[in-house]
Design a protein that fits this description.
Blueprint (H helix, E strand, L loop, with lengths): L1 E5 L4 H14 L2 E8 L5 H13 L4 E6 L1 H14 L16 H15 L3 E3 L8 H12 L4 E3 L1 H5 L3 H10 L11 E6 L2 E6 L24 E8 L2 E5 L2 E2 L2 H13 L5 E7 L5 E7 L1 H17 L2 H19 L6 H13 L5 E8 L2 E8 L22 H41 L1
Parallel strand pairs: 1-2, 1-4, 2-3, 4-5
Antiparallel strand pairs: 6-7, 7-12, 8-9, 8-13, 9-10, 11-12, 13-14
Length: about 400
């Protein structure tokens, strides 16, 4: 049987290369779907490891540009942070990776595809939901989920076979992508312990501070420090530059798709910078109702994407709404970066609603305003609360009168 395996180079998928080859007699071709996070050297290491483990061939699909255009641009437009913290650094990739896996399997005539998702995580749902939607007749193998070998058992089996164990196949489970790095395992199996400094990647031993500038056109980042860049290059540069300053490090404790609680650490320098910059630019150019409903629906979009609904048609409806809100989100944002914080110091836009007003907040009302206008507005806005208070007072008074009447009747 010819199997196309979604290969990340980590312990689970490395184990699968060898297990499918030796225990199932399969001809395994590994496919690394690059949604960002790998250096050229790491890509070469992936290929060498896959072949050493028994793959008949290793293939590579560069999906970074597609990842930005079909996923990340909407996470920025929606200012998406799950639980108010986590920018969906890696989970957002899975639907696209599954699509690329199915696409390649169909082109090259593979009999089955395989993934290394476990039974206790979200990724199995994301892969299976995507494949069931776009390739319902494709045979899908998931031995790590179905047989549930522990990480210790996988390492022991590989060593017993005289095969290489991935360097990351130790205490932590690490995933890298264009939108960030996630770290699981170890101290993160509890809710209270932090990671040691050496467990971090981009933000390890960070120090210093810097000022940077980011430019947006219709909600899409297009320039960094005055240099126009394609979005993928811009994100990759920000991950390194902002990461070296300790930006984007965090912990996320939340609900998994399966209903259990889970905790990860993450590093998302570019996401932290771009979401903060984008949010402040929107405050300058959008009206309050646009921002309120867009951010509310951004939370809906992120929750559904997290749950594996990348290919659901309602996601396309939400993206169409996001796109309509980004028409005026063009301008430049200046930021100060330092360990643990991103401070937006200024925003400018040709669509600035501040610059076209002759009012000055706290000093001078708009020339189109009338002195009695604010008073009338304040009284109209206060009317529901005033009536609520009066109704409560009336009810209390009615109850008092009734009690006194009953008391008087009892004394007669």
């Amino acid at each position: 049987m010819r199997v196309l395996l979604a290969y990340s180079g980590g312990l689970d998928t490395s184990y699968l290369v060898a297990w499918l080859t030796r225990e199932q007699g399969a001809q395994v071709t590994t496919l690394a779907v690059d949604c960002g996070g790998w250096s050229a050297a790491e890509r070469s290491e992936l290929e060498a490891r896959a072949l050493a483990l028994g793959a008949v061939e290793h293939r590579f699909a560069d999906a970074r540009a597609e990842m930005f255009q079909r996923v990340i641009r909407w996470l920025v437009a929606g200012n998406v942070r799950r639980g108010g913290v986590y920018p969906l650094s890696v989970g957002a990739e899975r639907g696209l990776q599954a699509e690329v896996l199915a696409r390649e399997a169909a082109i090259w005539g593979f009999e089955a595809v395989a993934h290394g998702c476990t039974a206790a995580g979200n990724d199995q749902v994301r892969f299976e939901a995507a494949l069931a939607t776009i390739a319902p007749d494709l045979k899908v193998l998931a031995p790590v989920r179905d047989l549930a070998p522990s990480r210790d058992e996988q390492r022991a089996w590989l060593r017993a076979q005289g095969l290489p164990v991935p360097p990351a196949g130790g205490k932590y489970s690490v995933n890298q992508g264009l939108w960030g790095v996630t770290i699981g395992g170890g101290e993160l199996h509890t809710s209270g312990a932090p990671l040691p400094e050496e467990a971090w990647y981009w933000t390890r031993n960070a120090s210093g501070s810097a000022r940077i500038g980011v430019e947006f056109e219709r909600g899409v980042p297009v320039a960094l420090n005055g240099a126009r860049l394609d979005p993928v290059t811009l994100v990759e540069q920000l991950n390194l530059q902002a990461g070296a300053l300790g930006v984007g490090r965090g912990y996320h404790l939340g609900d998994t798709v399966l209903g259990i609680k889970g905790r990860i650490a993450f590093e998302a320098p570019a996401a932290e910078v771009l979401i903060e910059a984008h949010r402040e630019l929107e405050k300058l150019v959008l009206i309050e109702e646009q921002r309120f409903w867009k951010d509310h629906l951004g939370d809906v979009y992120g929750r559904r994407l997290h749950s594996g609904l990348f290919h659901d048609p309602f996601q396309r409806n939400l993206e169409a709404f996001f796109e309509s809100t980004q028409e005026h989100v063009t301008g430049s944002v200046s930021l100060r970066l330092q360990p643990g914080s991103v401070l937006v110091e200024g925003v400018e836009s040709p669509f600035s609603m501040l610059s076209v007003s002759d009012a000055k907040y706290g000093e001078r009302a708009s020339s189109s305003a009338t002195p009695q206008g604010a008073l009338g507005l304040a009284r109209a806005m206060a009317e529901p609360a005033r009536l609520y208070r009066r109704a409560g007072e009336a009810a209390i008074e009615a109850a008092r009168v009734a009690r006194e009447a009953l008391l008087a009747e009892a004394l007669q």
